[in-house]
Amino acid sequence: MTEKQKHIRNFSIIAHIDHGKSTLADRILEKTGAVAARDMEEQLLDDMDLERERGITIKARAIHLNYTASDGELYHFNLIDTPGHVDFGYEVSRSLNACEGALLVVDATQGVEAQTLANAYLAIDNDLEILPVINKIDLASADVDRTRREIEDVIGIPAEDCPAVSAKAGINIEDVLEKVVRDIPAPSGDEDAPLKALIFDSHYDSYLGVVVYIRVLDGKIHTGDRIRLMSTGAEFDVVDVGMMEPFGLRKCGELSAGEVGYFTASIKTVGETRVGDTITTAENGATEPLPGFRQVRPMVYAGIYPADGARYGDLRDALEKLQLNDAALIYEPETSVALGFGFRCGFLGLLHMEIIEERLEREFNLDLITTAPSVIYRIKKRGGETVMIDNPSNYPNPDEIEEAAEPVVKANLITPTEYIGGIMDLCQDRRGIFVDMKYLDTERAELHYLLPLNEIVYDFFDALKSRSKGYASLDYEFSEHRPSKLVKLDFLLNGEMVDALSFIVHEEKAYSRARRIAEKLKANIPRQLFEIPIQAAIGNKVIARETVKAMRKDVLAKCYGGDITRKKKLLEKQKEGKKKMRRLGSVEVSPEAFMAVLKLDDDE
Amino acid sequence: MMTSNRTLGIYVHIPFCLCKCLYCDFCSYTEQDGGVHSEYADAVIREIRQYAERARDYTVTSVYFGGGTPTLMPTTELSRILSAIGQSFALSPAAEITLEANPKTVDAEQMTALRQIGFNRISIGVQSLCNSELLALGRLHTAEEAIETLTLAMRHFPRVSADLMYGIPEQTAESFERTLLRTLDTGVTHLSLYGLILEEGTPLYQRRTHLTLPDEETEYAMYLRAAEILSARGFSHYEISNYAKRGKECQHNLRYWRAQEYMGFGIAAHSYFGGVRYGNGQDLSTYLKSEIFAPKVSETLSDADLRFEYIMLALRLAEGIEELDHRRRFDTDFWQTHRASLQKYVEGGYLKRENGRVFLSDAGMYIENAILADIL
């Protein structure tokens, strides 16, 4: 280990959502003098508005900090922030791979939760030193002793003398920093070996091109080097090498084994620099890449359409811009008879989808119509060909299908014991296969289920929340595609199929969902001049039917003593509502009708 | 002088009632100490004198006393107001002069007096001739009393109108038809037929979940059945809610639909004059004290407003929009401009285009709002 390496600490902060990860990061920045307290905007590391608002970190960021410890030595900290949600599990694991240790933040009022565990296991899998930090001790309901016990019993790491802090109130932050110096191992790695650096994140800058965040494991990277990305073989000339300071990039010309920093190389899109990929020199480079790389693939797909068809171009531009910084977002043009021109978009998961939708609406001021999220089905056709289907519209006819398979995830649920019954009912209802259950302590249990992903994208989070009063938490990872009895459910309005409403569902669920959606449609389609039959069908077989009756009395019978203005106002209001309508063949439907169909309440 | 072709209608609001009906959201007061009527008449006369100035070049062709229940006011007070109108405005000798009345609030003697002071048309608020329905509406009279008043009115007035309602609590298709036929038997020559609207803030609205209301299909059937019966009896469906024998159309109300000028006096009265729509406030005590009257709300109509209102109002009438007139007023072709959205209504039998006019059918009138919201 070099002298330089001895003074480097590379670490992440991991936590369940809302346990205070970002606040702790802010305090660390403040204590290391990176930011003056008065200049600090809350949660500096999360630099997207949306993140700040939701209090979660979406994209990882890394910061280089200097800390003079109580031993009088100057240490270089590289704090690597990680996304805090299940959808970004792979990105979390790559960020952790860039570290030697992790601070595991646990909320003293909540205890260990599903993502605490999931993240802790990820850190253990990556051989990290885990340093538990008990947070929010300033709150009246904090139970530090119990939280310590839980960390020891449930996760199985010692928590006897772990720091108990309040990141919000700035209590005991020094403790954490000293622990980082003392307990997190310094990096090792051979400076003279061929270059091996791990990409753990990247972002697009309109002047520099892609800024690639790396951890150097072996060797060195210099300005001017010709480097190769090992998964694709693409080569680039390094323009700049440097470190991430709290308020921007600082060039330093070289990074060596153990260090964390960035490089730029006139790379055009973040898609070319895949998280988890290994960088080496083009000449005399490493022969073996670092383990663990995989291509990130979307798990959830949905059609996104502008509510106002004229804004298709704006939507395309917006998606293009978002993709610059989000390699996991994929999209391609799609046309729907019902909704016009839009895009089929792929997301890592539901949260990722929600974030993209919100950013499109907020940052680009777009009104969107989003179709029901779909997962990817693997269909073996009779001819022997296998196709992956992410859009119900492309689902083959039943007689062409030899075998249909759907993605199944390993789900890990943690819940207060009083809700176990309700959650088991929910999982059962969602075709879950029970794996096991263990009690974390007398009050909480962890359940493992194998669940079809299409049941999770169908309103599972809300159902879970309502059954556990918000106390249960869920984490999942893809397991495999399993053969399943799937059918495509279509909806017809006035005899015409509305492609945007079709979805794939398990045979057993088809009837109840068809009925509920037909009812929802009925409630949300305004009455028109004629009766509108609503039909739900599998192939040619109608399995549910509703009717929107013809419009009746819609007139202001009396004009109160010549009060024409009153009538005019009423009409203007009516006109406003009318403007938003979409024509589906001969039927007018409000954007809300689509959304209402997607937003189904917990199984009533 | 070009005065002779400018005509005006006058509305007078009499805001007194014995008791507020359960569905009513008109402006009315139930306190009845004798003084207030004469005080109110004084105020109305002051207002008439103030505004008459502006209409010096106009001939008044219709006067309408609405309410409230105008017949609750002593005939002498009504007479004072009517005289003031006659003194301040050029009142045509052929003017239609209407007053609204409720059954049981007016007797033979009073009718004789009303005729003498100049009223030549009376509109009776019958609503229903089924006692359980009248009770549900909170009306203070019985079916028998309504018939009695109608019969009396027929003897005194050359033109009598009755207000009826459909879609009221307890009503059935049969009871409605009976009400309609019995009303027609009295010989009335004009009928206003309103679908009950549960207006927010009324007692009936608050009670809406406990009411036995006819379902909307039944209500629609009542509307169509009435149009059928009335047509067979020689009434024309000349406006969404109004039916009349030939020549018996209410001239005053026609002014509203034809976007012709009118002045309203009294609290909550509305006016359309000189391109401005304005309306009075609703507070009685403020009104009584007023020396100078000023509208509470006022809106000067833009060209776009004018066209919007023209279409909105003209389509209420069976005569509909005269295409030539529309072109003359707005320099655009109504049919061509709205053709794309109008076509489906023509195909569905809601709208007709004949002899240079575009007008709604009975079915179309029933959903006028939806059609307007679509085409405007």
What order do the helices and strands of chain B follow?
EHEHEHEHHEHEHHEEHEEEHEHEHHEEHH
The major pleated sheet of chain B works out as: 9 strands, mixed
Pair of chains with the largest interface and how many residues each contributes: A-B, 26 and 46 residues
Helix content of chain B: 40-55%
Q: Give the overall form of chain A.
A: globular
Query: What is the subunit organization of this protein?
Result: heterodimer
What count of helical segments of chain A does DSSP give? 15
CATH class of the largest domain in chain B: Alpha Beta
What's the total number of strands of chain B? 15
pLDDT averaged over residues of chain B: 93
Major beta sheet, strand line-up of chain A: 10-9-15-6-7-14-11-12
Share of residues in helices of chain A? 25-40%
On the 0-100 scale, what is the average pLDDT of chain A? 86
Question: Can you give a write-up of this model?
Answer:
The complex is a heterodimer of chains A (604) and B (376). With 604 residues, chain A is of the alpha+beta class. Chain A contains 15 helices and 32 strands. In chain A, α13 runs antiparallel to α15. Chain A is globular. The N and C termini of chain A lie far apart (62 Å). Helices cover 42% and strands 23% of the residues of chain B. In chain B, the strands form three sheets. In chain B, strands 7-8-6-5-4-3-2-1-9 form a nine-stranded mixed sheet, sandwiched between helices. Chain B has two domains: 6-256, tm_1862 like domain (pyruvate-formate lyase- activating enzyme, Alpha-Beta Horseshoe); 302-376, Arc Repressor Mutant, subunit A. In chain B, α1 (34-52) packs parallel to α2 and α2 (75-88) packs parallel to α3. The chains are: A alpha+beta (604), B alpha/beta (376). At the A-B interface, α14 of A face α8, β10, α11 and α15 of B.
